[in-house]
Amino acid sequence: MLMNRRSFAAASGLALAGPALGQFRVEISGVGATQVPIAIARFRDEDKTTQSLSTIIRADLERSGVFRNVEANQVLDEAAQPQMNEWRSRSADALVGGSVTRLADGRFDVRFKLWDVVKGKPLGGESNATMPADLRVAAHRIADVVYEKLTGDKGVFSTRIAYVTRSGKRYALRVDFADGLGGESVLNSNEPIISPAWSPDGQELAYVSFEDQKAIVFAQDVASGKRRKIASFRGSNSAPSWSPDGQSLVVTLSRDGGSQLYIVGRNGENPRRITNSQSIDTEGVFSPDGRFIYFVSDRSGGPQVYRVPVAGGAPERVSFTGSYNISPALSPDGRYLAYISRQNGAFKLYVSELSRPGAPQAITDSTDDESPSFAPNGKLIIYATRADGRDTLMTTTLDGKIKAKLESRFPDVREPVWGPFAR
Amino acid sequence: MNMSRLTLIAAVSAAFLAGCASGVKLDDKPAPVESRTPTTAGGGTGGSTSGSPSSKVASVDLTKGAVANELAKVVYFDYDSFVVKDEFRPVVEAQAKVLSADRSKKLSIEGHTDERGGSEYNLALGQKRAESVAKALKLLGVNDGQVEAVSFGKERPAVQGSDEAAWAKNRRAELNNR
Asked: Helical H runs in A90-232?
C-alpha cells in the first residue's frame, strides 16, 4: 500500500520533536506489503519516567516493516478490559497496553499486555523489575515479545549494532541498539577505524585501526574496553571476521606479499594461510555452519565472491553477474547472500538466494551502497549508503520493499554490523 | 617518454631545485626518525619537468639529510592500476640512491586509492601500489628490511572531491621516512 509519508508518521505517533539523537525514519517504497495494524497505547505512568516506552515500541515495530501503527492516543494499562469492538472499528488487529510503577528500591515494575483484537483475547504479557537505566532495553524487549508472538519470528529490537562515525578528523566506533539510540562510542581515534565485526557471543568487537599508521586488527571487550592486538604483522592487517564458535578469526594479511586470507586464533596465534593466489583475496566471512569461508578475490580479473572450505580445498566462484562484486554477508540460516555489486558505475546492494541460480536483483535505488550485514533473525539487512551528500545507515527487508533510514547527529556513519541475540 | 640523457639529468636537477624553491608543498616539519607521523605530500611532485631546463648543471649531494627530506615522495597511479609509470621512475631512483647509500635509512611506502569502491578491496589495491613501489626500490638495490609497504586504501584522501581531478590525486603511493 502506498502511504503519504507525513500522514503515516502522524498516524504512528512517532515523536519527531525532542532531543532524538538518532532515529529511524521509515520509507515504504514497495506496493503490496501486507502489514499487521497494531495499536500501542500509552503506558500508565510512563510519563513519570525518562523514557516513553510506548513511543519506543511503536517505532521499533514500524521499523521492522511488518506492522502499521494505528493511532492510540490514550492510556491503557495491562489490567484493562478493552472493548474489542471499539478497536476492531479502528482497524486494529492487535493492541498493546501497560504500566510503569516505581518500586520501593528505586527500580520500576514494567508491565505490558498484548491482545489479539481479531480473536478478542489476550495473547500474553510480562512483568519485569527494571533499573531506571534499563528502561529503553525494557521497551525494546517488549517490542521483541510482541513481534515474536504475532509473527513467529524472533524480534531484533533489543539487539545492538556497531558502526563507525566520522566528524571531521575524529573517528569513533559506536555501539547502539538497533534503533540507533541508547549507546555510546567504544573507541575514539584521530585515525580511521574500519571493518568492525561482532564476536558470536556479542561480547567483543574486532576492528581495524590505523592508529599506528598502518592497518592493524584489534579485538576489544565491549563491556570493559579492554583491547588486544590480533594481527599486527608486516604490511597491512585487515578484514577480521569471527568463526561461529568464537575461537578463531579469518583475517587478510599482506605479510607474505599481496593480500591473502589467514585463520588465526582468537588471540591472534597460529596464523594459517588458506588462500594461495597472486591476486587480491580479502573480506573473508565464515558461513554460519563454519564449513566455508566466503571471500572476495580478483583472480579472474575483477573482484568476485568465492568460497573455500575451511578444512582445505579449492575455492569455487559464487558471483557471476557483472565485473565487480564485493562485501559478502551471509544470512544466519545460510540461505541468502548479500553483497555489493557495481553496475554502470553505481554500487548497489544485491541479495541472492544461494540455492537458486539466476540473475540477482538490486534491492535499492541508491548508488553508493556499502557494508551489508544481516540482523540475527535474518529478516533485515543494515547497510551504509550516501544520501544528500552524507553517509547514512539504512535497514531493509530482504526484498527491498521496506526501508528505514537512521537519522544521525553525526555527519558520516559507516560500516554497520548487526550484533547477535543477547544470550 | 623519450628523453635524451642530458635533458633527463637537467630535468631531474631542475625538479630538485624547484622542490626547494616554490610550488611544491612539502611537510615543513622534519620527520622524526623513531615515531611514525603521517606526512602528506602536495600534488604535482614527481620526476616531470616543473621548470625549464637550466644551462647550468648544479651538483646535489644526496647524502645530506636535509636534502633527502626534500626528495619527491609521491608516485601517482592510473585507475585500477598499480604499475609505476615511466614518469615516476626518477622518484623511485632518487629514493633508492638515498637508501642504498645509508642502510640505516628506512621508508614506509603508503598506498592509497580514490574513494570509489569498498574499503577492504581498496585497502588491498593500495597495498598492491605500495608493494609495486617497494619492488621497484628493491630491484634498484634497496634492502628488504629498509622498506615496509602498507596501505590506507581510500581512508586518507589527499584531496577531497568526487571528480577525476580529485581521484587522480588520491591514487598514489607516498614514500615517507620512518
From this structure: 135-151
Lowest mean pLDDT among A139-148, A370-379, B53-62: B53-62
Chain segment A191-249, per-residue pLDDT in tens: 999 999 999 999 999 999 999 999 999 999 999 999 999 999 999 999 999 999 999 99
Condensed to tens digits (0 to 9), the pLDDT of residues A234-269 reads 999 999 999 999 999 999 999 999 999 999 999 999
**What percentage of chain B carries pLDDT values higher than 70?**
61
The model's pTM: 0.83
Question: In chain B, what residues touch A303 (CB-CB under 8 Å)?
Answer: 121
**Grid cell at residue B63:** 647524502
Whether the CB-CB separation of B45 and B72 falls below 8 Å is answered with yes
Half-sphere exposure of A256 (CA within 13 A, CB side): 15
Looking only at Cα atoms, what is the longest distance across chain B?
49
- Name the A residues in 174-203 with CB < 8 Å from any B CB: 192, 194-195
Given 3.40.50.970, 1.10.600.10, 2.120.10.30, 3.40.1190.10, which CATH number is that of A160-418? 2.120.10.30
- Determine the straight-line distance between the first and last CA of chain B, rounded to whole angstroms: 32
Neighbours of A345 (CB within 10 A): 8
Distance separating alpha carbons of residues A121 and A111, to the nearest angstrom: 17
**Residue B111: band (very low, low, confident or very high) from pLDDT cuts 50, 70, 90:** very high
Contact at 8 Å (CB) between A97 and A112? yes
Whole-complex ipTM: 0.90
- The structural domains of chain A, with segments of one domain joined by +, span 35-151, 160-418
Task: Kindly give the residue spans of alpha helices, DSSP state H, lying in B22-112.
Answer: 65-68, 89-101
Provide the CB-side half-sphere exposure for B129 (13 A, CA). 33
- CATH homologous superfamily of A35-151 equals TolB, N-terminal domain (3.40.50.10070)
Cell numbers for A371? 557494508
- The domain that holds B107 is classified in CATH as 3.30.1330.60
Total domains present in chain B? 1
CA-based nearest distance A283→chain B, Å: 7
Q: Is A250 on the interface with B (CB under 8 A)?
A: no
The count of C-alpha atoms lying within 13 angstroms of the C-alpha of A258, restricted to the half-sphere facing its C-beta, is 15
Residue B63 clears pLDDT 90, i.e. is over it: no
Structural domain of B117: 5-177
The DSSP letter of residue A358 is S
Nearest to A210 among B128, B131, B155 (CB): B155
Q: Given pLDDT bands bounded at 50, 70 and 90, which one contains residue B26?
A: very low
User: What gap in Å lies between CA A138 and CA A126, rounded to an integer?
Assistant: 11
